[in-house]
Amino acid sequence: MAVKEKIDGIISSAAAGVEACASVDEINSLKVRYLGKSGELTALLRGMKDYPAEERPAVGKLVNEARDKINALIDEKFAQLQAKQEEEKLLEEKIDVTLKGTATPRGSLHPCTLVKEEILSIFTSLGFSVAHGPEVETDFYNFRQLNIPKDHPARDMQDTFYLGNDILLRTHTSPVQAHVMEENKPPIRVVCPGKVYRPDDDATHSPMFQQIEGLVIDENITLCDLKGILECFAKELFDKNTKVRFRPSYFPFTEPSVEVDLSCSVCHGKGCRICKGTGWIEVLGAGVVNPRVLEMSNIDSEKYSGFAFGMGIERIAMIKYGIPDMRILFENDVRFLRAFK
Ligand code: DAH
């Protein structure tokens, strides 16, 4: 039967085609060619009407068998090629989990941050809470509420960056005192860390630096309480033999006012390069809160009294770590910063 030969021919050319396929894509197009709507087998089925009626079932059977056979060949090859393709992909994407990774370098806290956190933790352990205020301040809080009226000569103590009429970058953290007194009733016990700004720039001054302000207001607070707290603080921050010395000074917001020196933590009072031979290092300004400041914040100065202090964080970091020039603290040279890991 000629049709049988024809079908066998199709089968063997399909088989050869399948054999030659090298990819999943090729096998897919081969499938369309042999088994699709315009494939040779489909054409045979379509031509069935030309065969005598008695031969048709046999031809149909042959075509169906051929279709099954080709399908099976294609499926088998398809599975082989797919497995091969997957394996190749896995090989290509293989990663060596034993290789060394790239470590992300770990940073460290800046010495000023370390000192600030240490100072805050000493004061919070003494019962102080932490308060913050704005860096862009009004003349009112930065000066007037602290008993520094307009045109008062005490304004010369602090050069100022003005941003406009009555608006400035705060020159100290003392205005936070005024905010705290406005918002709270005594007893008050706060420390206020933050950045402050003054147009100064040399080895011991920077246009931006940080301060920590302290304020205590309660009944019967005296200069002795200030000295006791500062002594306790200095012994914690430096060492237990640190001594505190008060020298008379002047701040408009305190009366009396003092400049506070600590015995030199390097030479312990003998005199060295760090303390310029005096045995003492000046670290902060402080005093008993001026009753006028209390009254301006609506606190009864007959009933309450208080003390306040303000210290520079960079200055304390310089003393604590023996840093000779403040500018090093702002350069952020990693070789320097690594020393504080
Ligand atoms: N605000 C002062 C300054 O920046 C420091 C200071 C002195 C703060 C005495 C105080 C204080 O609270 O009582 O120079």
Explain this structure to me?
The protein has helices spanning 2-20, 24-35, 40-46, 56-92, 111-125, 139-142, 174-183, 223-237, 291-296, 313-321, 328-331, 334-337, and strands spanning 129-130, 136-138, 162-164, 167-169, 188-197, 208-218, 244-251, 254-263, 280-289, 305-312. It is rod-shaped. The strands form 2 sheets. It has a 7-stranded mixed sheet with strand order 1-5-6-10-9-8-7, sandwiched between helices. Helix content is 42%, strand content 20%. It is built from 12 helices and 10 strands. Strand 3 (162-164) and strand 4 (167-169) form a beta hairpin. Helix 1 (2-20) packs parallel to helix 4 (56-92), helix 2 (24-35) packs antiparallel against helix 4 and helix 5 packs across helix 10 (313-321). It is of the alpha+beta class. The relative contact order is 0.10.
Output the keywords.
341 residues, seven-stranded mixed sheet, three-stranded antiparallel sheet, 12 helices, binds 3,4-dihydroxyphenylalanine
